[in-house]
Amino acid sequence: MSVHASNPKKITTHTLLEMKQSGQKISMLTAYDYSMARIVDEANIDVILVGDSASNVMAGHETTLPITLDQMIYHASSVVRAVKRSLVVVDMPFGSYQGNSKEALSSAIKIMKESGGHAVKMEGGQEILDSIKRILTAGIPVMGHLGLTPQSIYKFGTYVVRAKEDEEAQRLIEDAKALEEVGCFAIVLEKIPAALAAKVAQMVNIPVIGIGAGNGVDGQVLVIHDMLGINNEFNPRFLRKYNNLHQHMLQAFEAYKKDVQSGDFPNATESY
Q: How far is CA 141 from CA 3, 13, 83, 86, in A?
């Protein structure tokens, strides 16, 4: 039975702060289209991330880099039309904010105006502070993202765990403090040691949401295609699969084909 109310109380950035302060964990999933977002929202997931992971799971690209600003807006606007309760955060894609704070502001405004999203997410620390500051001056909430930052994959050259060494760990801590000080409302920590993630979550007053960052943070995020088992080739340690939709869907499609070929579908009751 769904607990989705007819007029549910909307999740805001302030709600997330209250959840951290009260010790209530934050749930976050990605979504990229209307139909899926409706179900995620109905399940009372707190935050829906319209991730640039759409580049991988929706478009079949090897990395998140190719997806464009207009494509992100298309996905985000589809999600926003489905949502009654969840906070919708939209990834700013690669090339839309790095190195040029004026372009960053223009990109963020375009996302908010054309998609109706509630906030944007940006990868990076002190190197993008100017862009974050400029976006915040326009009243646009910003979620940070540290650790493994997929838009920088060619810089790192690998998707291995980040910040295992002391120097990189210290830089991540400094970046997290800087993101809080500049005014980010939350931070995603991706694929870093659990002890470091817990330390950061205790150190900052804003919510810290982990993916592959252990259980000592304020919430968790997963890519919906991964946790549903639609994408069955991706099996990192941090992923818990809550279904095996790849197998279920494959069986359904094969059964449909069999029924069409045999003439069983449509039968008399399915015809006019």
A: 28, 8, 18, 15
Q: Which of 197, 245, 236 has the alpha carbon at shortest distance from 220?
A: 197
> What end-to-end distance do the CA atoms of the chain give, in Å?
33
Quote the percentage of the chain above a pLDDT of 90.
89
Task: List the beta bridge partners of residue 145.
Answer: 123, 188
- Considering the four listed CATH numbers 3.30.1330.40, 3.40.50.880, 3.20.20.60, 3.30.2350.10, the one that applies to the domain covering 13-241 is 3.20.20.60
Domain limits, the chain: 13-241, 245-272
State yes or no: pLDDT of 93 exceeds 70: yes
What residue has token string 């991540």? 172
Q: Which positions are annotated as active-site residues?
A: 190
* Euclidean distance between CA atoms 176 and 197, whole angstroms: 10
Q: Rounded CA gap, 1 and 200, in Å?
A: 37
CA 146 to chain centre: 13
